[in-house]
Give the backbone structure.
Amino acid sequence: MLSVTDLRKTYGSTKALDGVTFEVKPGEIFGLLGPNGAGKTTTIRISLGIIDADSGIVRFNGQELSVGMKDHLAYLPEERGLYRKSKVIDVLVYFGGLRNIPPQEARKRATEWLRKFELAGVANHKVDELSKGMQQKVQFISCLLHEPELLILDEPFSGLDPVNQIVMKDMIRDMKMKGKTIVFSTHQMEQAERLCDRICLINKGRVVLYGELGEVKRKYGNDNIHMEFEGDSSRLKDLDRIASMDLYENYAEVRTKPGVSRHDFLKQAVSLVDVTKFSVEEASLNTIFIDAVKTDKTGGENVA
Amino acid sequence: MSLKKSLVVARWEFMEKVKTKAFLISLILMPVFMIVMSVVPSLLMNKADTSTVNIGIIDSSGEVAPVLDSGLMEKYKLPDGRPNYNVVVIPLGDSARAAANQMVLRNELSSYLVVDSNIQKSRSFQFVSENVSNFKDITRLQSAVKDILLSNLLRESGVNPVIVKEVTKPVSLETVRLSKEGKEEKTAALSGFILGYIFIIILALFVLTSGQLLVRSVVEEKSNRIVEVLLSSTTADEIMTGKILGLSLLGLTQLAVWALIALAFAGQLAAFITIPDSIWWEGVFFILGFLFYSSIFVMAGAPVTTEQEAQQATTYVSMLLFLPIVLASLVAQNPGAGYLKILTLIPLLTPTMMAFRIPIQTPDLWELLAGTAILLGSTYFCMIAAGRIFKIGMLVYGKRPTFKELMRWATRKM
């Protein structure tokens, strides 16, 4: 569906992208993950032809991206782009027009979508009279009017409250059911873990992890220790046999150093805190993410 | 480039801007303001007095006072036929001035004149009043005294008083403009000059109102990140072309409304202005100038992120619009001068220089064609450059790019 090959982009003296390559398959939800400044937004902008790469190729359905293909793509930017002083329905018709949909048809489709999202009542309201969640939905509708094959969403969950995060998640799943292909970027691993079929983790402009979500997790091993406890969590910092630890007040996710058995670890942990629950599971995407970013010491400087 | 999407953008820009308060205000208030500014002061200036004005005179020479009254009465009358001025002769003496001052303060006199004994030689006298800005009275009294001195001089030289009267009569002049085709047109004096001014002022108003709207829309799209949505569905060139088209349409709407208002005042205008045959060229340069300046405004707005910055950027551009007004008197004296021809070929000055020169003395055809070509080329260049700066500048926040960077953006291959 979408493939990018060896994308490179430099801003001044900072390398934003340093050879990014991945492929998105038809009908899947693809997660573009990475910490802030990893190059996610730059990758997305280049994939949409908003900006140009210094080198590298973007292909859509096997052909190099051209202006004419833009009508098959949809884009939800991270910061919402709507005309605040204009009427909701007018903005939607305009954005539809930019995708070659005649005004009457765009109006019909927009009205339909607004009804589906329970926004029929605000069609004639000005955008800035809407709540953030409503604006989010309007922005999402603007991506759907031209029935795109591929939706690219930049940080769709950022700035949303839990209720609206669920709304967004449902919208994304809905689109997948309808056979659309979805690419979204995020640094919130919980959402990625629940939604994505495949992921690509970028750090400092380079691909660090890439593949099917289950595969990535399997490769990472399933000897990840999840531990609940009572007592002073800071004492766990004294543990010396661990490779990495994600520590909370009464909970920790731990990977031990190679050769260290779970048994030895547990013995030491019990001597420090009162362990109430101990299990060995697959690593969460969050742990994999933190680990991968921490161990990735090579590469250029982060781009702010 | 797809014209279809440009038209979508143009339609949007037009429909959204036409509904804004700023546009409606400039549409209606501006002409009202112009009319008030231009018509009202002259109406007030020429407003006739309704009652006779008392003018005192302390005349040590004894040559002015006896004839001033009749001189003024002959020339200036109230609408109802009564004399406009009544001359009050104040008896000479040490306290004459003090007495006259008292009369002015008691409003018995509006003003008084003090004439020395040797006025015929010194040719100067005093005007005393609470208000010394009354140009109408001052100029009338000045010319009346001048006439008296002239006729005194002629009489002393033995010239017949009847001839003296003939000599001091004004002369009238009729101006006839010879067009390039050799046609004679009776033209009000300075008509071309005034027409040039009007064109420049209307063009400037247009560019300023539409230009500000244009810049504001670019800045809003940048700060709201709408630009990303736009660029993901179309190209920067199409957006820029669409914006300029939409805003031009807005300008034409404005022009149409103003033209209707002007028609209502046509009678009054006709006294000052004669429309020359070359008016069509004036229209061509008006439209080209408008497009060119609009594209410059977009270019100025493309790299900035706040309206304040945009204002600064556009202020300098706007000043160039008014430069030809500084050169106006030079153009009026010799519109065909070589250096003016050169100035006319500088794109930023072409529209306004042409607007001035065409009604005064139509330039040669080659100049008109060269000007058209230069403007078309520059406009095209600016639109493309604006598109590129817009696309690259979109990612730049906070820091204003240097001129060198802008040039690199504008010329870089996309």
